[in-house]
Amino acid sequence: MKKNAFSVTFSRGLLVFGVSSIALGTAQAQEAETAPALDAGEIVVTARKTSERLQDVPISVSALSGDQLRENGAVDVKDVMRNVSGLSFAGVERGLGNYNIRGVSTVASSPTVGIYLDDISLVTIATGFSGAFDPIFFDMERLEVLKGPQGTLYGGSSMGGAIKYVSARPDTSVLSGSAAVGAATTAHGDPSYNVEGILNLPLVTDKLAMRTGFLYRRDGGYIDNAPGLVRNSNYSSTPSPIYTPLEQDALTSRTVSDHNKADSFVGRLSFQWEPDATWSIRPALFYQRYEQKNPSQFFLGDTEKLTSSFRLPQGTVDKAGIYSLDIEKSLGNVEFTSLTAYFDRKLNWERDYSFFIGGLVPPMFPLTSHNLSRSRTKQFSQEVRLSSGGPGDRLKWLAGLYYSWQDDNLYQIVNTPGAEPFIGTVTGYVGDTTTKAKQYAAFGEATFSITDQLDVTAGVRLFQIKQEVDIMGDGPFNGGLTLVQGRKSNEKGVNPKVGISYKATPDNMIFASAAKGFRPGGPNRFQINPALCAADLERLGLTAAPDSFDSDNLWSYEVGSKNQFADGRVTLNGALFFTDWKKIQQQLSLINCGFSFTGNAGSAEVKGAEIEGRVNVTGGFQIGGNATYTSAKITNAAVGTAVQDDDQVLAVPKWMASAFASYGFDVGDTWRGQLRAEYQYQSKARRMFDRVQGVTYADAVAGLVPNRAEFRESYDVVNASLSADNGSTVLRLYVNNVFDVQPLIDMELGSGNDYATTLRPRTIGVEVRQKF
Fold first, then answer.
1. Nearest to 349 by CA among 379, 319, 322
2. For residue 501, is pLDDT > 70?
3. CA dihedral of residues 50, 449, 85, 710 (deg, nearest 10)
4. What residues does the TonB-dependent receptor plug domain cover (predicted)?
5. Whole-number Cα distances in Å, 639 to 19, 296, 443, 549, 589
6. Cis omega before residue 241 (within 30°)?
7. Were both Cys, which of 167, 416, 438, 520 would link to 369 (CB 3.0–4.6 Å)?
8. Are 202 and 173 in contact (CB under 8 A)?
9. Which residues are within 8 A (CB) of 287 and not within 5 positions of it... i.e. 6 or more apart?
10. Cβ neighbours of residue 413 under 8 Å, at least 6 residues apart?
C-alpha cells in the first residue's frame, strides 16, 4: 500500500541548474592555491570510458577530485550538488530519494539518472520505500557528473545523465595511507563525529598491492519528538466557508531529543595484480551500512520548532555490498576490458502510519498503525569492451557488449492493533512484489579527427530489456486478495548520438551534440482493485489501471564552449541546451484508495543557459561562480490531472547561482593556510501542479482552498572554512549554513499529517587528517 500525499505527481523534487563543463564544487580552489596553473581542467576523467583531460571532453561534465571532496568535508553527493550545475536531489534521506539532471525527472519507478561505482551500475527500481543508492565519499579518486543523455555508453537509465563514483586504486609501488578524525556541533542538535583509516600496501613490489580502509560516521540529530498537535490540511476544524486546518492531539507520549541521528559504516578492500606491463587485474569489495533512527521530518503548525509528534520509532537501515572483478589487457593498439560485478542491497523502512490511516478512516485515528517495508535488490552484470589504444590515431573507437539480470523484491505490511471493529482485521494491507529484469546491449562510439582541430563523434546502442513481475496484495485497503503471476514486458530499441567539436587553440573549444535518451517501460507493480479505486480512475478517464507502461524518450541538443586563458589562470565556460521529452512516465496517484500506478502521459520542453568562470587573481587569491537560467515547461498536459500547458516542471528554479572567494597564505615556513567563503542561491520553484486542495469542513461540506504547497520558497546558503596544511597534516575548521536558514524543502500536506524537511542547521566542525 503506497502512501501518497498528492493527487498527482509529475516530477516531484526536480531541480535543474544548467550545464557544467568544469569541476565547480565547493573545493575547486584548493588545488590552485599552491599551483595556480593546475586547475579543474587537469583532472583526468573517464566520462566516455576512456581517459581524457576534463577540459578536453566535448560533452558537459563536472568533476571533483578526491582531494577536493576531502578538503571540503563532503559526505555524499548532496553536499556538492548545489555547486554542480544541473544536478539535484529529491528527498532528504539517504537512500530514499531520486537524482535529477537537467530537469529530466519523474517519481515513476524507473530512474532517469544512472548511478555508477567504478562503472558498475547501481540503478534500482525506485518506489515510495526505496530510492537511489548513495555511496559515501570514502577513498574516492573523483566524482564525475555527466550531463544530458548517456544512453549510448551507459544505457537506458541515464536519459538525464549519469553520476560516476571512481574509487582510488591500489598502488603497487609505494606504501601509503592516511587517518582522520573529526567532530562537529549542529545548532538545535546533537554533536557529530567521524573516524577513518586507509592503508595501501604493496605485497609484491610493482606486481601486487592491497588497498583497504574503513569509515565510521555519526551524524547528530536535530529533530525532537515530543507530545503535541498534528495538523491535517485535508480537514477544517471550522464550518464552511471559514477554513482552519484541523489540529488534533497526536496522542503520543514519546519524547526523544534529536531523534533523527544516523550512523554510517563503510569498508573497502581491493587488490591490484599486474603480472606484466600489459595486464591489470583488480578484484574489489565495497560494503556500506547506513542506519537512521528516525526521518528528518518536522510537523507543520503553529510552532516554528523542528519538532515532530510521531507515536512510533521510524528506523531506516540500508545495507549494500558491491563485489567486482575488473580485468584490463593491452593488445598492442587495442585495449580489452572485462568488468564483472554483483550488487546486493537490503533496505528496511519502518514508519508510523497512524495519521495516514487515520486520514483514510477517521474513526481509526486514535489507533496506532505500524508500516514495515523491506526492499531487496540483487544484480549481476557483465560488460566487455574493446577500444583503440593509440593516442595519436585519427580514429578513436570503442565497442562493447553488456548483460545484466536484476531481482527486486518489495514486501510491505501495515498493522493496526485494535482495528477489527473498523476493518475486520489487524492487518490493513500486505503486499509482496518481485520484479525480474534482464538486459542485453551492444554499443559503440567512434571519434574521427578530420583535422588536428576538428573532431566528429557518432555512437549507437542496441538494447533489449525483458521484465517480469509477480504481485500479491491482500487486506481491506487492497480490496481483498489479488494475485498476478508472470506479468511481462519485452522492449527493443536503438539509441543514437552525434557530436562535433572544434579546438581553435589547445585551451579553447566549441562543441555541439545531439543525443537520444530513453527510459525502459515495464509492468506496473501494484494490482489495483478497479472497484475500490473507481472514482479516481474515472477522474483519469480510465476504468482500470494499465498492466504496463511504455518507455519514454527525449532528444537533447547542446552547444557549448570551454575556455582557458592566461596560462590557465582564467576559466570561462558556457552552454545552451534544449530537450524535447515525449511520453513521460508519470506516477499517477489515486488519492481515495491510497495507491498509484505508472502511465505515459504528457510532454515537456527544457531550455537552459549557463555561464561559469573562475579567476586566479594572484597565486593565493581566487574567485569564481556560475549563473543559470532554466525554463522547463509542460507542452502537453496529461488528461485528468492538475497539470496545465505552460506549467513549469516541478521544483525547477528559473534562476540558480553560486559564488566563492578563496585566499591562500603562508603560515611560517612549512604551513599553508586557506580561507574560503561560498554563497549559493535558488529561486522559487513549483512543487505541485495542484492550484487548490480539497478539504472537508467541520459541517461535512466539501470544498476547495488554495494549495499552500504549490511552490517552494527561494533560499540562499552561505558556507565558510579555514584550513592549514603542511603536506602531511591537514587541519580544517568549517561552518556550513552560516546563517542557519531553514527553508521548507519537501513539504507534505494532506497525507494525514502536515510535515516538511529542511537543510541541516548551522554546523560548526573541525577535522584533522594525517597522511603518510
1. 319
2. yes
3. -110
4. 54-162
5. 32, 35, 37, 16, 13
6. yes
7. 416
8. yes
9. 266, 267, 268, 319, 320, 321, 322
10. 371, 372, 427, 429, 430, 431
- Which residue type does 110 have? S
What are the angstrom distances between the C-alpha of 255 and each of 222, 259, 304?
14, 9, 18
Give the amino acid at 305: K
The span from the CA of 198 to the CA of 693, in Å, is: 53
In the chain, what is the straight-line distance between the N-terminal and C-terminal CA atoms, in Å? 53
Kindly report the CATH class assigned to 8-723+747-771: mainly beta
Q: Which three cell numbers stand for residue 96?
A: 530514499
Burial of 703 (0-12, 13-18, 19+ CB in 10 A): middle
Strands (E), 450-476: 454-474
Which pLDDT score, from 0 to 100, does residue 104 have? 78
Residue 53, judged by CB atoms within 10 A of its CB (0-12, 13-18, 19+), counts as exposed
The pair phi, psi for residue 483, each rounded to 5°, is -135, 135
The 10 Å Cβ neighbour count of residue 619 is: 13
User: Which set of grid coordinates corresponds to residue 283?
Assistant: 578484484
Q: What's residue 230's pLDDT?
A: 95
Q: What are the pLDDT digits (tens) for 312-356?
A: 999 999 999 999 999 999 998 899 999 999 999 999 999 999 999
Q: Where are the beta strands (DSSP E) in 41-105?
A: 44-45, 52-53, 61-65, 87-90, 98-101
Q: Which of 291, 135, 266 is nearest to 194 (CA)?
A: 266
Q: Is 93 helix (H, G, I), strand (E, B) or coil?
A: coil
Amino acid at 15: L
Q: Minimal CA–CA distance to 767: which of 720, 727, 722, 737?
A: 722
Q: Other CB atoms closer than 10 Å to residue 161's CB: what's the count?
A: 28
172: three-class secondary structure by DSSP: coil
572 DSSP assignment: E
- Going by the DSSP 8-state scheme, the letter that residue 104 receives in this structure is B
Q: How many CA atoms lie within 13 A of 667 on its CB side?
A: 14
* DSSP line for 283-314: EEEEEEEEEESS-S-EE-SS--SSEE--SS--
Residue 106's pLDDT is what?
65
pLDDT, mean of residues 270-293: 96
